[in-house]
Design a protein that fits this description.
Blueprint (H helix, E strand, L loop, with lengths): L1 E7 L2 E7 L5 E4 L4 H5 L3 H8 L12 E2 L4 E3 L9 E5 L3 H6 L17 E5 L4 E2 L16 E2 L2 E7 L8 H4 L3 E8 L2 E2 H6 L4 H4 L5 E9 L9 E6 L2 E7 L7 H8 L10 E3 L21 E6 L3 E6 L2
The chain binds magnesium ion (MG).
Magnesium ion (MG) binds next to loops.
């Protein structure tokens, strides 16, 4: 099933998207619950409870404004750097120069702050050249944790995945490079477009799906998640080592080759550019940079 967070009549709601993708059926949620997007659904599922009841009406998807399925995650979004071999190679002289591409035993893990999440069609605000003139896109499959846990073993890891969505891990490259940690260059306001909804894990095998990204209609990134260096079970095992994962936690799995910094010469995003990311089995997000 696909679960979306959206605004209709000035009110945030959560709904189930119809199989043909044309309609969305809202859940009966209190305004406080709906404000948290799909999180109440994830938490109910993690407790083994049924989904909340649906309203007996459907809205045309064209009549609602989709928001990020989790408009404000309960804490930082876990992210993974250097997780496709070709991407590791294209940034070997810059971002990954201190990491030898084929011998790393552990993934690079960083986070984005929850407040940088925006919806699947929302504008991404460039911070101004004096803050950063090197804004880049990163198309990524993100997984949403269902049942939480600590020290989750890779053999059981996929049973902790509630669903999948798309994120653009927008990055200020100069800021990423300037500091020893990446969080700053990854967490500018609006720097995490997410959506268009969450597809539950029973409907999508996130371990083998295709990720693509276009900038102004030009295909820049294309890869299968089968090519991840550290696969999804390994990422869950790694992030949960000594740290409890909670329902609704989000892990972005890393980006394929083809980012702007990897081009010759590098090409960064400017006002008016449109970045579209599509993942097979989920759908697409498309954001204009302003
Ligand atoms: Mg990334």
């Amino acid at each position: 099933m696909r679960f979306a967070t959206f605004t209709h009549d000035g009110r945030r709601q959560v709904g189930r998207v119809s199989p043909d993708g044309q309609q969305v059926m809202p859940f009966r949620l209190t305004p406080e619950a709906a404000h948290r997007g799909v999180l109440p659904l994830v938490e109910a599922a993690a407790r083994g409870e049924p989904l909340p009841p649906l309203e007996d009406r459907s809205l045309p998807l064209a009549d609602v404004r989709l928001e990020a399925p989790v408009p404000q995650p309960r804490r930082n979004i876990w992210c993974v750097g250097r997780n496709y071999h070709a991407h590791a190679k294209e940034l070997a002289a810059s971002v990954f120069k201190n990491n030898s591409a084929n011998t790393m035993e552990w993934p690079i893990v960083f986070t984005k702050v929850p407040e940088c999440v925006v919806g699947p069609a929302d504008p991404v605000v460039l911070p101004g050249d004096e803050v950063s003139a090197q804004i880049d896109y990163e198309a990524e499959l993100a997984l949403v944790i269902g049942k939480g846990g600590k020290n989750i073993r890779r053999q059981e890891a996929l049973s902790h995945v509630w669903g999948y969505t798309i994120v653009n891990d927008v990055t200020a490259r100069d800021v990423q490079m300037r500091h020893q940690q990446w969080d700053m260059g990854k967490s500018f306001d609006t720097f995490c477009p997410m959506g268009p909804w969450i597809v539950t894990a029973d409907e999508l095998d996130g371990t083998r799906t295709r990720v693509r990204c276009w900038v102004n209609g030009e295909l820049r990134q294309e890869a299968s998640t089968e090519n991840l260096i550290f696969d999804i079970p390994t990422l869950i095992e790694t992030v949960s080592r000594g740290i409890t994962l909670y329902p609704g936690d989000i892990i972005a799995t890393g980006t394929p080759a083809g980012v702007g910094m990897g081009l010759t010469p590098p090409s960064y995003l400017r006002g008016g550019d449109v970045v579209r990311i599509e993942i097979d089995g989920i759908g697409s997000i498309e954001n204009r940079f302003v």
